[in-house]
């Protein structure tokens, strides 16, 4: 039945790329997003409007070594204007503060929108670069200070204003809570804190809250315990699971979340990425691994997804980044 439809939020072009050392040019990001959309992804996180001073500066751009140092997310405006906007697909971007929202709104008002022609009509339709932002906070002040230079309560105050303004402009807003299991700076996290922060994000107007196991230290048991507490105050329909795969628990934790009733999972093509403020953390659970894991189960994806094409995309982007493909299913499927 419909209650077993799983929504996958493909976060590779943002969470994945933001922590990759080799900076790829907008062309590659545009092709990545276009291919993910054509392969069947319905929500593709496409970049961020964060301060370039805060997402680590990499030494130089391997692919364009004559250009000055930049950061992986700096090209987001160009990517948003050039990528293909498929009907029915959302392309959220991360926004940390009002400044980021203003930069996005300026882009939205200045862009000559992509014109796609609906094959069933003779009228061209214009589609704005994006209709969704994602805001983010965390459960601990230590992580919040490292990631956004303010405490959790200060960040909630800021984000309430950002959310209100974004919604006034017709954007939908997704919320993230980072470090829902363990914080790299303050250790084991209190599940009640996850619950309370999630509730506040929903109250300020987020349509969904994504629970981030940033360090990837969660296990099915600790994820299950955390979800029990959060679901005491927040409807499970409003929750998503965001699992980093540092300890190889990504798929197991994702299945645990599905068992608990969660129906939205964040994942990253090729298992790309990490988190700049979570030392040693590896990428998100690979989208290919999630797709493989739910094959033949009662769960199905929201729309057809072409797993073989996803595997090819995972290999292609890993090669572009000069990194190992972190999807186990991607490796195995290629080898057979
Ligand atoms: P701040 O230094 O306190 O900001 O940083 P500020 O307001 O004092 O401004 C300082 C300078 O930055 C100023 O420039 C601003 O104009 C500029 P200056 O006057 O010095 O030339 N600035 C900006 N520029 C561009 N875009 C902006 C922006 N804001 C200020 N939006 C701030 C505070 C929040 C901006 C900063 O800490 C920041 O950008 N943090 C984001 C870090 C980040 O991107 N982290 C990764 C994403 S979160 C994540 O990955 C977790 C997640 O995946 C879930 C999980 O796994 O847990 C979502
Ligand atoms: Mg993340």
TrEMBL record:
Transmembrane segments: none annotated. PROSITE patterns: PYR_CT. One of its GO terms (biological process) is ketone body biosynthetic process. Coiled coil: none annotated. GO terms for molecular function: hydroxymethylglutaryl-CoA lyase activity; metal ion binding. Signal peptide: none annotated. Keywords: Lyase, Metal-binding. It catalyses: (3S)-3-hydroxy-3-methylglutaryl-CoA = acetoacetate + acetyl-CoA. It is an enzyme of class 4 (lyase). Pfam families: HMGL-like. Pathway: Metabolic intermediate metabolism; (S)-3-hydroxy-3-methylglutaryl-CoA degradation; acetoacetate from (S)-3-hydroxy-3-methylglutaryl-CoA: step 1/1. Its EC number is 4.1.3.4. Residues 6-311 form the Pyruvate carboxyltransferase domain. PANTHER family: HYDROXYMETHYLGLUTARYL-COA LYASE. Belongs to the HMG-CoA lyase family. This is hydroxymethylglutaryl-CoA lyase. It comes from Jaapia argillacea MUCL 33604.
